[in-house]
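tool=predict chain=A
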Amino acid sequence: MALVDSKHLQEWVTSGRAIVANRQFSTEFAAELDRQPWSPGAASLDWERLGGISVPISQRLAVESWLNKTEAGTCEWAFVMLSVKEPGLLCRMRDAVFEAGFLFWRAPGHRFICGVADAGGTPSLSSLKIVEFDGAELLTARKRAHVLKS
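tool=predict ok
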């Protein structure tokens, strides 16, 4: 059974919170991740080189502020990659970030979310708008180049 067929994810699909994305998205996103710098040991992306900022997912108010300071936060939509070889999900970026623990429940280890742009009605991956979830507590993404102060 594919991860996307898990009962908890199918509830999201059935309710309209997400749609199942073509497996091609996983293949394209995996290739993009391979082009990124990785930390020694390749456990996660090298966020120091990428200009990453992190937040504990349990600090819900801080997550909102964090998302607004990231490149990923400029995207309304997100691709949630459950596995390189399986389909993923398309959903709202905010939902993907706030519910990362739920979405990746059956996909252990470091997991990734990618911003999605709407190119004339066709969704396309936004390669610099990556969010990494460490599988436990930490969300990390590239800091926005120009953050507007409120």
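DSSP finds six helices and seven strands in the chain. The longest helix spans residues 23-35.
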